[in-house]
What does this fold into?
Amino acid sequence: MKFSINRDVLFTNLNNINKALSTKAPMPVLTGIKIDVKKNYITLTASNSEISIQAKIDDPRNLFIEEVGTIVIPGKYFIEIVRKVEAKTIDIHTFENNMVKILADRSNFTLNLLEKENYPLISFDESNLKISLDALNLKQIIRKTTFATSLSESRMILMGVSFSIDKHKLEAIATDSFRLAKKYIVFDHENPSINVVIPSKSLDELIKILDDNDEIVDIHFGKSKVLFKYKNLLFQTRLIDGVYPNTNSLIPQDFLVSIKFNKNELISSIERAALFTSLEVANIIKLNLKNDKIVEISSVSNEIGAVLEEIYPLECSNNIPFQIAFSAKYFLDAVKAFDSNEVTIHFTGEIKPFIITGEFDANLVQLILPVRVS
Amino acid sequence: MKFSINRDVLFTNLNNINKALSTKAPMPVLTGIKIDVKKNYITLTASNSEISIQAKIDDPRNLFIEEVGTIVIPGKYFIEIVRKVEAKTIDIHTFENNMVKILADRSNFTLNLLEKENYPLISFDESNLKISLDALNLKQIIRKTTFATSLSESRMILMGVSFSIDKHKLEAIATDSFRLAKKYIVFDHENPSINVVIPSKSLDELIKILDDNDEIVDIHFGKSKVLFKYKNLLFQTRLIDGVYPNTNSLIPQDFLVSIKFNKNELISSIERAALFTSLEVANIIKLNLKNDKIVEISSVSNEIGAVLEEIYPLECSNNIPFQIAFSAKYFLDAVKAFDSNEVTIHFTGEIKPFIITGEFDANLVQLILPVRVS
It folds into this structure.
């Protein structure tokens, strides 16, 4: 195996597949990157038990192939070498059967290879169950939902984001049973019916290789895995097995009072009000709508002290005095998911779930369960 | 106690004294900041067992004092409050004997105070044994020496930097017995004779409150502590007790061969050569001067692989073939301490200490002990 490659192109692609590289080694060969050198292109593959990523490089301006072959190269060290060399071109060739030489300007690296026979067979499978979405929209869906998934392994299904596709609509839902994030998008063409749950962690890795543009991502749904095709990259993750709970009835439709806030003002107030509530335990703050339509946000810690914030809402649908308590962290996560400058909180009752909406986030609802305080 | 203060002025000064704030609590009251409100000024004091810092604020444009008094306020929370409020002015007053109210725009914080009677008496003592130095020069001395101090408590004296002042010269020396950093400066006036050892950690904190300018720092040397007076700040640290070893004879004067390098090229080569040597263990690399005056830098790891770097020196005093091995980390620490674009390594023998100098760092010598390799 022997080829020369543009250093920057190689480094960019190594960074992309790096997200799937195993750092721990339940299977030591997975700490390696598989390089397949074909006649006219090379592929770089990395995989852990959850996700696999493959990058294909075929631009003859950046690549010169002299001899085909396959190696599995220690991932961490290979990436560090490419990061540290300043050469324009890097030459890579195998020698003595299980070693590789990496030459770059006046640097000469020798790396012991991993056993390529031990590398698992990874098939990146396309499917007839397929939808297409632009990168920006997919990023938005992920950003606005994954934070609400559960971290607890006691209910695995809640550690993923539910994607339900039915004809013209894709609905993404995440919940840890204390809060819920729901984002949908509407297509102008018809799609197949699909119901899958994608691990939240995989989506958080996927987002890192997507740019903020309208380049198309093709999503192929398999029985136990889903494949994202984007530019020269294949990103595949396993799915979470099981039936996602029906959450439709959770989202209230009739509201007691709706209050509109400037988003950044609200975030600052909540952050100050939560200063004394430790982030590790449930950091509960109170929201109090007073007769004069001024909103008070407050918290008390017997040990440390108390905070009382006043905030003037932009609008208030009703002036019944109203009081509710909830987790500042959940609330901040939810409000920060909005792009709108103004957000509206819709309350149903003092101990009933409430929802947050934003006028420029038409297809996004964040729901939070309040807590009962004395 | 009651006063109003400009938020930005308060925040800047809190950040400065923050470096001395105790985070752990062998003495819980030291997690607090002592605020002394006098008729025309306030002081903020923080202290841990090693260092104490006091900031004085007296500019009437930024401060309005209504009632004098002293409090000890929980440091971490007070700083977080001031960081998070956006108000121009903050009002602070005590109430109910052991509480303080902090008002900023529409935010209202209540904090439980710490017992001021428990706060230790900290005297910031001036001394007749005094020198003056500009901030930039003092920063340079610290930056170019502290990294070479020992981290091991087995020889406490080596955990500090030795400052020897004799008439027109100040000499700062740090060594962990494997390497040594020596920087001196020359005064045009006469100073008292002083020999002290200042904890390396304290100097690394001091550096953070010094700006890159020529504002004067007055240094007052006491029996067991040293006080730095800089702008509106007092920074005091304990000294390390004991006699610093005499290191004069360690620095070689006659050299077998001297090799001049471009500094950045040398750093890049060494960093690449050290890629496979773990930073946790002694990361040994070899330097080999060949007949053709090309320098090879190399390392081998049986497990991972090998690196061979070639570098063309700018100058070489002699062309005897020569080989030496040393810690890449120590070497990089030392070379990075130079401001010069070109550095010269002066070798005395293959298993003898060598030194590094730079033409624009006239008063700086870095010494490194090689290691014997087979």
In short: Chain A touches chain B through 30 residues (CB under 8 Å). Chain A has three domains: 2-118, 130-247, 251-368. The CA atoms of residues 339 and 361 of chain A lie 6 Å apart. DSSP finds six helices and 24 strands in chain A.
